[in-house]
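User: structure tokens for Transcriptional regulator, please.
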Amino acid sequence: MSEPNDLLRFARERAPSPTSPGEPLTRQELADLVNAHIYRVTGRVTAVDANHVGKWERGVIRWPAAHYRAALRAVLDAPSDADLGFTNPRRANLDRVNRKTFLKSAFGVGAGAFVLRPGEAHALPAGDTRSAIGGPTACYRRMESTVSSEYLGPAVAAHLRLSYALVAEQARTPSGFGLLAEIAGLAAWLSADRGDSATARRRYAEAIGYAQQAAHPLLAGYMTASLGQFAVDGGYPRQGLRLLDRAVTQLGASAPDSAHAWLASLRAVAHAALGERLPSIAALKDAERLTGRARGEPVWPWVFSFDSAKAARYQAAALGRLGDVRAARAAYQAASPALTAPKPRALAQVEHAHVLAGDGHVAEACALAAEALATGQAYGSERVAMRVRNFRATLPFRTAEARELDAALQAIYDTGAP
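Assistant: Done. Predicted tokens:
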């Protein structure tokens, strides 16, 4: 009977869940992070799932492949394989190693051991360069849902500058540019969250350019679609829809169903913002069909799995803009299980507040908006605060049900908080 690997399980349970604040990392979440890290560093698509992680934790597999061990060390912040309970059954005791061979490899005996070509004194091996860039990026992405953008934004911007220098000097390769695209996309998202629209547009443009240099259609399509979503959310649905249509052509038919489902959901919201009911409903149907058949495919690194609960949020947003209040409310209820991260939940609450107010439930809508505003302040999200202000502007000036919300909004200006 296999001996359980308690060290690996303890390391996983110490790590915070990226989607459920206060909860430990689940086996499936660890699997998704491992797949994403391997893709970032090697460009290889892997399909680790909760079952694989379970085998590692139960000790059924005591020595995973090298790329899996490297990813687990990076994700779980472990200095060595031994710290995760992994031992190589083929490796003999160090005492059996030929001392001469060991010393030669350890201390570099041989004429060329310490001879470096000019310019290489500070260079990292290619794999180390990618790990040095991709490791912090993965950590920052996990922190995004639970750390204030006020603090995380500057850190990511600094990481982008450093990574650009590393790629320019040591990793001008498709995988290097792919890593830059991911960091620039994250920097764009955080800039938008802080209310810096000009920087967000510039970063998204950089991300698209890097993705094209990486010759990666899926990544280029994702970044183009992200800019399109940003435009739609900013009140420019026609320009956003053009970008989303461009992203469709960039993805190509071979892209994963989850990518097409996400993009169809974004297009549904854009059409709804333009009052185009029939194309919006058609896009929602496409998203529902694609989400239903996307089970089991590898998760692409820039977002977590796009399931029916996440699709329901976009469905609710589109239906709410189309004025279909009853269907929108049902969709928000279906989306609720996926809305565990604070900032996405707050944004959805503001969207839901619009629907409730339109259906005559003004007091409930204002309470939901006030809750979202509190989250926005806690996480330094100007995006959330702006959405709440816009919601309040849709109500009559003298609205008794909005008294508490008005007081919370006034406090923003009194304290200078977002």
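User: Anything notable?

Assistant: The radius of gyration is 24 Å.
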